[in-house]
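Input chain follows. Return C-alpha cells only.
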Amino acid sequence: MGKFLKPGKVVIVLNGRYAGKKAVIVKANEDGTAERPYGHALVAGVARYPLRIKKAMGKKKQARRSRVKPFVRVVNFNHLMPTRYALDVPLQKDIVNAASLKDRSLKKKSYVEVKTKFEERYKTGKNRWFFSKLRF
C-alpha cells in the first residue's frame, strides 16, 4: 500500500480528547520507533474553533472571536481518518517536533508557533473548511 499520510494532509482525529477535531500532519512515521513500535504521526490541530463574526461587532470582539486554540499530539495511524484536503502551513520543524512535547517550555513554544500560523491562515480567509466545526 502506498504512503498517503504525508505531511500537510488534513486528518480527523477519531479517538481521545480531541476526537472529531481536524488536524494536519506535521511528520509521519510509517514504521514506528523504539518507544512507539507502530505507525504514528505528529499532528497539529484545532482544539477550539474560531466563532462566527458579524458586521455589527467591533474590532475588539472580532479579534477575540477569531482566536484559535491548537493542540500538538503524536497519534497512532489507527486513530486518524484522512481527508481529501491538504493544508500547506509552514510550521518550523525545529520548534514543532515530537521531542519538544516532552519538555514543558518547548511544548509551550510549539503551541505558540502553531497558534500564530493557524490564526494567520484563518485571518487571510484561506482554507475556511479547516477552521469550521465538523457537523455530524
